[in-house]
From TrEMBL:
Residues 7-122 form the Transposase IS200-like domain. This is Transposase.
Length: 183
């Protein structure tokens, strides 16, 4: 699979998982550190719209705001810093992530909105747990007034307002709930 080249001004779904689907997060401390590194390395060069951290994978939705070379290097620094810290903390060696992080360019607003909801509902999709209570998605940060790396106002504006943002998530959550009941 040829990797999409990151381009300034474009929005991307960035995701990856642990090599051989192994966990990349084994504690809340790991997830908090990953978010700290995201803030340090990526947020200064990209607009962050959504994230979700699961035990063996993650999803990010970002817009590239700086030159592509700078952003590519910031992602490299981000993932390398996290992998080194994780390996040291868990007494392991070798690659943590699959070879390259995946990236898909988002070319229309409707798909972008669907992707935000998909990312936030990932805990429901993979573990059938309440996405509204799951700590490691950007859903709560979108609804909070606390400082965040997210472009919260921009995200909410895609949905019209805060109430519609909640409504769309709840509707999609009901769809997933029905899917689980049928399986």
């Amino acid at each position: 699979m040829k990797l999409e080249v990151l381009q300034r001004g474009y929005t991307y779904h960035i995701y990856n998982r642990g090599i051989n689907s192994t966990p990349i997060f084994v504690s809340d401390e790991n997830k908090n550190y990953f978010l700290q590194l995201l803030s340090k390395y990526v947020a200064p060069h990209c607009s962050v719209f959504a994230y979700c951290l699961m035990d063996n994978h993650f999803h990010l939705l970002i817009r590239v705001d700086d030159p592509a070379e700078k952003v590519t290097q910031s992602f490299s620094n981000f993932f390398n810093a996290y992998a080194k810290a994780f390996n040291k903390a868990t007494n392991r060696t070798g690659s943590l992530f699959e070879k390259h992080f995946k990236r898909i360019a988002i070319h229309n607003e409707e798909y972008l909105k669907q992707l935000i909801v998909y990312i936030h509902l990932n805990p429901k999709h993979h573990y059938n747990i309440d996405f509204e209570r799951y700590k490691y998605t950007s859903y709560k940060a979108c609804l909070s007034s606390k400082p965040t790396i997210l472009k919260r106002d921009e995200v909410l504006n895609y949905f019209g307002d805060r109430d519609n943002f909640i409504f769309v998530h709840q509707q999609r959550n009901l769809d997933l709930h029905e899917k689980f009941l049928l399986e």
